[in-house]
Amino acid sequence: MLLVYPAVFHKESDAFWVEFPDLQGCQTYGCSINETMEYAQEALAGYVLTLLEEGRPVPAPSDISAVMHDEESFVTFVSCDINQYKDAKAVKKTLTIPAWLNDRAVSMGVNFSQTLQEALMQKLQVK
Predict the structure, then answer these.
(1) pTM higher than 0.90 for the full model?
(2) In what order do the strands lie in the sheet with 2-12?
(3) What would you report as the CA-atom Rg of the chain, rounded to the nearest whole angstrom?
């Protein structure tokens, strides 16, 4: 299922962040416009899949011309195909790492699940 929603992109210092006016709390950021668009597609897919899994309605996208933004931001469409994520059930994995590595990662607030997923996707060369 292809989804297309308007999104507001904001430039802040040397980075960008994006929000979806129709999807309360659906936001992400990136260091470049390309990275931010990629993350926006992932955020859109994750948000909608969560709604579907919880049996909640998926809001209809607004007319792009009706989306308000300030002069330092811009509105564009973001699309994603949720079929590539739809059957991706999470599985629990138990792993072992050195204590010093664990301590340092915890002190830096590292999300272990996200880090493992990113590393595996890079290693397997998938997006």
Answers:
(1) no
(2) 27-30, 15-19, 2-12, 73-81
(3) 17
Distance between CA 102 and CA 36 in Å, rounded?
Answer: 29
What is the rounded CA–CA span in Å between residue 13 and residue 29?
Answer: 12
Q: Per residue of the chain (127 residues), what is the pLDDT tens digit?
A: 789 999 999 998 889 999 999 999 999 999 999 999 999 999 999 899 888 888 899 999 999 998 988 888 899 999 988 877 666 666 778 889 999 999 998 888 888 888 888 888 788 776 5
Check: CB of residue 18 under 8 Å from CB of residue 28: yes
SS3 15: strand
